[in-house]
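stage 2 :: seqdesign
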C-alpha cells in the first residue's frame, strides 16, 4: 500500500494516477498489477542509477575518488556495494551531497548527448 500511496502523491492527482495505471481500454489496473508495475519501475531506476555510478567511476566503485561512498563493513571486513539497488541508493545520495560530483556528472551527460 505504501508504494501505491507514494506514487499517487508523486503523480499529483487521481486522474493522473489512473491515466498511468489503466489499460488501453481505460480499465483500471488491479492492486497487484500496480504493485508489479511499480516494482519494475524501481528495478529499472536502480539499474539506470547503478550504471550511471559505474560509468562515472570507470566501473571501480572502490576507487579513492568515491570517498568511500559505496563502502560498507560486513563481518569486520570492508566491502564495496555491488547490487544495483544499493549502488543506486548510494549514488543518488552522493549526487545530492556532493555538488562537484553532481556538476561533473551533468557535464559528462551533456558531452554524451552531444
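stage 2 :: out
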Amino acid at each position: 500500500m505504501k508504494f501505491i500511496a507514494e506514487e499517487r502523491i508523486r503523480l499529483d492527482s487521481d486522474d493522473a494516477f489512473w491515466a498511468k495505471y489503466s489499460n488501453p481500454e481505460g480499465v483500471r489496473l488491479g492492486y497487484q498489477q500496480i504493485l508489479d508495475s511499480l516494482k519494475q519501475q524501481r528495478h529499472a531506476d536502480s539499474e539506470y542509477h547503478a550504471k550511471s555510478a559505474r560509468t562515472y567511476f570507470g566501473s571501480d566503485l572502490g576507487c579513492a575518488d568515491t570517498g568511500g561512498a559505496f563502502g560498507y563493513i560486513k563481518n569486520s571486513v570492508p566491502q564495496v556495494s555491488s547490487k544495483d539497488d544499493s549502488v543506486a541508493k548510494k549514488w543518488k545520495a552522493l549526487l545530492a551531497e556532493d555538488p562537484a560530483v553532481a556538476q561533473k556528472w551533468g557535464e559528462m551527460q551533456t558531452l554524451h548527448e552531444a
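stage 3 :: structure notes
- DSSP finds five helices and two strands in the chain.
- Residues 43 and 94 are 19 Å apart (CA to CA).
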